[in-house]
Design goal:
Blueprint: E1 4-10, E2 31-32, E3 35-37, E4 46-50, E5 55-57, H1 62-66, E6 73-75, H2 80-83, E7 91-94, H3 104-114, E8 120-123, E9 130-131, H4 144-149, E10 157-164, H5 170-183, E11 190-194, E12 216-222, H6 234-241, E13 245-249, H7 253-257, E14 264-265, H8 271-281, H9 285-305, H10 307-317
Parallel strand pairs: 1-3, 1-4, 4-7, 7-8, 8-9, 10-11, 10-12, 12-13, 13-14
Antiparallel strand pairs: 2-3, 5-6
């Protein structure tokens, strides 16, 4: 029986690979139940517009870059080649980024601009046409079979945090300030990521996040946004798939999606939060107590929250 083919377009830079998300299925070539995700398929049955920005800055010349000029964002309309003949009733728009105050005007513009092209427009945002959580994608490079059937990795260290030095918004800056506060404390915390301040003494960027999570009992999973009931990101999925017990700072969506006890709440990004992390990571006891809940959460992420499963169910019910 032939599969329903889903193509995809996105404004994420560097997302050109044909095998996008094939790691999130045990089947070859992006097959999941009744669908096949083929990002670059020339004649797909459905089209996923994934974080497609309808207004963006045009590429700069080397001369403009040298002069430090910043081009103005220009309205973008998807081309016929991008749309590939897929009608509106078979096109889906999913906005993935959080509704930070600094980007809400952009998000609203994208929701409005997507509606002539897509019959379903959603985002993790009360202001979205269809507010909903983001179907799960993850940045662990291990195969689906390894994540589903592999044994618990050997845990040798207490806690890690994989983050970045991005400071575009107030929420980003708050997270970086908390990171510095943690590094000033006598905590055993390994930090990985790109663009981080030298004072943090980060170990560096990772090719596979598994390497900075799997050997640890705990992982700090701190969202860039924690102020609604919809937003939860790969920060939580990656930690759980690596068999960490996440110490999580985020909104209430995680409570709806995951079993009780599969993650711990970080109360705040201040001294109380530091004390909470210090107490938990002093021993692996909480990880051992949560081991069964982590195992259950991992199967939910792999089989239910998975974006491929979401697409499969959406197509089947349409």
């Amino acid at each position: 029986m032939s599969k329903t083919v889903i193509g995809m377009i996105s404004s994420y830079s560097g997302l050109s690979q044909a095998d996008w998300l094939w790691k999130q299925t045990p089947e070859p070539f992006g097959v999941w139940k009744n669908i096949q995700l083929l990002k670059n398929a020339p004649n797909p049955d459905w089209l996923l517009m994934y974080q497609y920005d309808f207004k963006r800055r045009l590429p700069q010349s080397k001369w403009e870059q040298l002069l430090g000029k910043r081009t103005e964002a220009q309205p973008i309309t998807p081309t016929a080649a991008e749309l590939r003949g897929v009608p509106q009733n078979r096109a889906i728009y999913l906005l993935r980024e959080p509704p930070l105050p600094e980007v809400q005007p952009t998000n609203q513009r994208n929701y409005q601009a997507a509606q002539p092209f897509c019959s379903y427009v959603s985002g993790p945002d009360d202001a979205a046409p269809v507010p909903d959580y983001m179907p799960a994608i993850w940045y662990i490079s291990n195969s689906f079979e390894e994540l589903e059937q592999g044994s618990v990795p050997r845990k040798t260290k207490p806690c890690s945090w994989i983050t970045s030095g991005i400071n575009r918004t107030e929420n980003h800056r708050q997270r970086l300030a908390f990171l510095q506060r943690l590094k000033d404390e006598p905590l055993t915390l390994d930090v990985y990521g790109r663009g981080l301040p030298p004072a943090v003494q980060a170990i560096g960027e990772l090719d596979n996040k598994w390497h900075g999570m799997a050997p640890y009992h705990y992982n700090l999973a701190i969202e860039n946004y924690a102020d609604n009931d919809w937003y939860v990101s790969e920060k939580l999925w990656d930690a759980l798939l690596s068999w960490c017990l996440p110490i999580y700072y985020g909104g209430s969506a995680a409570d709806r999606l995951l079993p009780p006890g599969s993650f711990l709440r970080l109360p705040s990004l201040d001294e109380a939060g530091v004390a909470h992390i210090r107490e938990i990571t002093a021993t692996p006891d909480a990880w051992y107590a949560a081991k069964d809940a982590i195992a259950e959460a991992r199967q939910i992420i792999l089989h239910k929250l998975n974006l491929l499963n979401w697409l499969s169910e959406f197509v089947e019910n349409s």
